[in-house]
Design a protein that fits this description.
The chain is α/β, with parallel strands linked by helices. It has a single domain, classed as Rossmann fold, CATH 3.40.50. Helix content is 50%, strand content 12%. It contains 17 helices and 9 strands. A hairpin with a 2-residue loop joins strand 2 and strand 3. The structure holds 3'-phosphate-adenosine-5'-diphosphate. 3'-phosphate-adenosine-5'-diphosphate binds next to helix 3, helix 8 and helix 15.
Length: 329
């Protein structure tokens, strides 16, 4: 009886949240959406209605623990790759490389998104228990909108930055693939215009980056700022730094056994994209939103923007990046 009451209470609360959210949406500024009709500006950032619900839910319900690890990215900055890397670093004592979970599970199955899993209280509780004592989570939520406990708990945050132009191009490809057929076509020129004025999922891109960049300068022992490009150029150095930050440094014996190199290979684009689970599997983020795993592994290259943006577009994006992230790039 208690179970069904609490289930009812939970559902009532949820339905009330839905009603409050739709009421709130009518009061928010909106712009053309990438995969929904509109994106809405909520507390200075742009979201789909579902993402606003996720952010609010996370703020209400998520209680971070000091031992938690939160991977934060602006969408298409390397989430899938870094989920695989962090999962491999943290679980390297538990799994052998020949029968590793990443060979049969997608990276998004190994580390869930906070704003998605928190929508289902039972799954969230089960997940927390399953990965105790160190819970691994990922999110795209901007720094200023994180649940308060993330900063106050002192848990570790890893932020991944990627070149603006590649982020735009990767977002455009992905959104075009999953964009509902009933919406009009979405040329890259439209994506570019929206992106430049900050209108993209969890954007503006620059404000999202800036919040975490500043936090990484203020509390470097709690917030590590890495780049997609550095991980590509020198994965061994970057992974070693990441493991040290996560209090799981590689010991001499592991170095001798080339564990770092084994993780790099396991999580490489070439390996992950060749696995059946990532070619045919589907990620169910919520009952309403599923995406085929292959859409998270497209090209995995630095500089693919050159195949899609004009030089004028690229220069414009670089100029905004120089102005907004002065000192970082
Ligand atoms: P998400 O934020 O929606 O989860 P995310 O994983 O950040 O997506 O972005 C996908 C991008 O990372 C794709 O970039 P592309 O469109 O330029 O190709 C994808 O190919 C790339 N990616 C995924 N896995 C890897 C990997 N193991 N190594 C390098 N890049 C990767």
């Amino acid at each position: 009886m208690d179970m069904s009451r609490s289930q009812h209470e939970h559902e009532d609360e949820y339905n009330k949240d839905d009603q409050d959210n739709s009421d709130m949406l009518t009061t928010l500024p909106n712009e053309k959406g990438w995969i929904t009709e509109h994106l809405y500006q909520y507390k200075s950032f742009w979201f789909t209605p579902a993402a606003i619900k996720g952010v609010k839910r996370a703020q209400q319900c998520f209680k971070a623990q000091p031992t938690d690890i939160v991977l934060v990215t602006f969408p298409k900055s390397g989430t899938t790759w870094f989920k695989a890397l962090i999962f491999s670093i943290m679980n390297r004592d538990r799994f052998d490389f020949s029968s590793h979970p990443l060979l049969t599970k997608g990276p998004h199955d190994c580390i869930p998104f906070l704003e998605a899993i928190i929508q289902d209280v039972a799954s969230y509780k089960d997940y927390r228990i399953s990965c105790s004592p160190r819970c691994l989570l990922a999110t795209h939520i901007p720094c200023s909108l994180l649940p308060a406990s993330v900063m106050s708990s002192g848990c570790k945050i890893v932020y991944v930055f990627r070149d603006t132009k590649d982020v735009l191009v990767s977002n455009w490809h992905y959104m075009r693939k999953i964009r509902p057929k009933q919406l009009p076509s979405f040329p890259i020129e439209d994506a570019f215009d929206l992106f430049c004025i900050g209108v993209s999922h969890y954007g503006s891109f620059w404000d999202n980056v800036l919040g975490y960049w500043k936090a990484s300068l203020e509390i470097p022992d709690k917030v590590l700022f890495l780049t997609y490009e550095d991980m590509k150029t020198d994965p061994v150095v970057c992974l070693t730094k990441l493991a040290k930050f996560l209090d799981k440094p590689f010991c001499v014996e592991e170095e001798r056994e080339q564990v770092v190199q084994k993780i790099v290979r396991l999580c490489s684009f070439e390996n992950l994209s060749s696995l059946e689970v990532n070619q045919t599997g589907v990620q169910h983020f919520s009952p309403q939103f599923s995406v085929e795993n292959r859409h998270f592994l497209r090209k995995g290259q630095v500089g693919d923007w050159q195949n899609h943006l004009t030089l004028e577009m690229a220069e414009h994006l670089d100029e905004i990046t120089r102005q907004k992230l002065c000192g970082l790039v």
